[in-house]
Amino acid sequence: MSFDTVTFAVFFALAFAAWRGLPFGAAKGVVLALSLGFYAWWSPWYLPLILVSAAVDYAAGARIHAARSAAARRRWLLVSLASNLGLLATFKYTGFILESLSALLARLGAPELAASTSATVPWVVPVGISFYTFQTLSYSLDIYRGQLAPARTFRDFALFVAFFPQLVAGPIVRAQELLPQFERRQAPTPWRVQHGLYLVLFGLFAKMVIADNLGPEVERIFKAGAAGTIAPATMWLGLVYSGCQVFADFGGYSAIAIGLASLFGLRFPVNFVYPFLARSPSEFWIRWHVTLSTWIRDYIYLPLGGNRRGEGRAYLNSVITMTLAGLWHGAAWTYVLWGTYHGVGVVSERFARKLSGARRDPRWPREAPRGARAFAWRIAGILLCNVFIHTSWTFFRAPDLAATGRLLRLLYIAPFEQGLGLVEAFRAPRFLLLAAPIFLMHGVRLVREWYGWRERAWHRAVAAACMLLLLLTVRRGDVQDFVYFQF
Amino acid sequence: MPMVHREQSPLASRPAPRAARREGYGPLAATAALAAALVIGWQLLVGPRLPEQVYHPARFDGVLHWVAPGVGPFYAHGDVAGADLVVVGDSRAFDDLELETLAGAGLGRVARVWGPNADLAALLPTLGARTGDGRPRVILVVASPSLLGADYDPLMTVLLERAPPELERLSLANGLARWRAAERPRLLAAGPSAPEAARAAHAQRVEVLLDVWAKRLADTTRRAGWSTKEVDRVLNEWVDRQRALALATVSTQRWATQWAEPVAPDRLAPGTRKMLATRDADQRAATRARFVAAARAQLAEGARIVSVRAPVTPSVLAAEREFVSDADLRAVFTELGVPFFEHQELALPVRDGSHLTWRASRTYTRLVADALRGLGLAPNR
User: What ipTM did this prediction achieve?
Assistant: First the structure.
């Protein structure tokens, strides 16, 4: 069930009424049942998967907490890790592993063996598996580290895992953040309700007006780009549209999830903070999919040693961590490369800083740039970082590595051979209009960050009214799946 | 690695500021009032300036209705087997008759099976054949000269030579990938071997066709059983239709056709001529005989058949009459002894010469519904 359907509106009304109207214990039980129904709406066959995953982690968490010896604690942690990573490996990566193995065997001159391993797996990736396995993993790991007490009841734990706003596409909410909020029901304050409604409206607008309308054009441009039948400038424009589409889609989903939680009186963590204002790859990951970047920092980068084992090891750890983040997004070499590309970006930035002797940068400059020169440098930094970010969509969206290569060639080599082709690129300016709200919100935010411009209630009222009007009049008619459902 | 700042964001869940905690629902009321004012302003100032929405707001291409190798394609809307009235025909059956309006006119459960340049002789025997006793009570044939034979896209013919695979919902992505991999070489082989530009153009068409069909095949799996997606689709289409009926809406995907290509009454006249010219008199006679036999079989099974000929522009009508006269088409239904309503000269807005605009299709559907009720075809419930 998708957030942008009428079915969901009916479903949410039921869940909200139950949450607010029933005694809290019963409310949690009913919302848990509804959340499982929400998941089953997509495919009931994978419902046991999420239940088994939750049961294993609940049991493992309790055992880790109760264990007297370090060995026993480690043993139960391994059970949790094996269960979660096993699920991910089986359902998400089997096809990828078999395909890669088959390609490797074919290259090594063993075509019979290659053919025997090239069987297509008979299942699709269960919706949201990457999200809920990461949530349950953090639960076991946090208990193991002594940072979290186990959930009091299986109902509360299962609700944490399956709570419908964040179940299929995040944000990745950790048990430390959500479980304590299931202890006591929060009253629906006017601020919380209005904030929640605003976020839901923003999310629906971003998804249904911007992302859904940009989607087909982005697809067209990427296909034509891979076939080499468009001008380089059109491809660059397609990359910008692609960034706006993914942000509007995923950022929109996150906003709806956070807004729905707010209506329930719950707080979800930040997931997007105006990512296209980043001035460096590392700042981009402070602003983009924040719950994933903090997860991989806490559970992969830091356990690998972080930057505590010397500069070289920090570089390696960054690349490993970002590569795994890429693989988390999808079981394909294009995603692996996408992650590595970002890892190399983060490392290059760190290396450049070291070379220039710059102190650790503020990264998030709140003060206005002093003077025209500083202003120009800062804007140039943002633009340059956007070139880096948008180039990465070639890995993210291309169907295979060969297509990625063709797209990169079109972007970086073809302009010198055949010119940019600006006239062709701007033949369809209507799509710029669709991307305009993304530019506008980033621009307003820039002014707010640098010049301390405060947001007033009426600003939100005007923005909300405009979004509502456009949602009613311009949105696409048919339902499009959220991009991150596939992850 | 990045360190996350405790940053405020409209996309974030943030603690309520002290001042905000005290606020009531004033901002919400102000937003609602402002939004209402904007919507009214839009309706009064922008709405009248927008071109008419020529396409149905929730047009769904339909699930695949497989008829026979090399025939079709046919698409089904609604539950064909359990319908009281099934509309069949070519693209005019899709564009000119609105199912919601027919159902709302008291004609019972309504469904549709349509195909571009439909070969109804191949289609009719398949209606209800899959569910045994689920044969439709009334069949409404949207007749046009293409009933007696017309040209198909050769590439489509190649695609249709093999029946589509049975796809499992859980392995849909893999199944479609396999189908694509198997069909691509066949379709490419059907194209020109030279020159390079023609080959490239053909390859591009192949990819488009594979994309379109992959979507159709994905929809087809909905027929394998009850699907929650179907509930979402039906509800969403209903809301969308109400939205478009009450508000002046803009479809960005169709800006090009809505704004740059407004209603063009003669656009399809040359295409109609070209399409009908591919069949000679003997071929038409053979197709006619097959259709009459198929229709008789349905009549013998107890179905009632009614036929209509939908409005077109004079230029398209003239092109049609070059190949099939009005009398020839009329004679088919006279021979079958079924009612035939000839509306081809009815003056209604036609967006491209051959298909009505959305608003006109609703007007025309009401007219057809009246005619059907006049024949006593509304179910007794």
Answer: 0.76
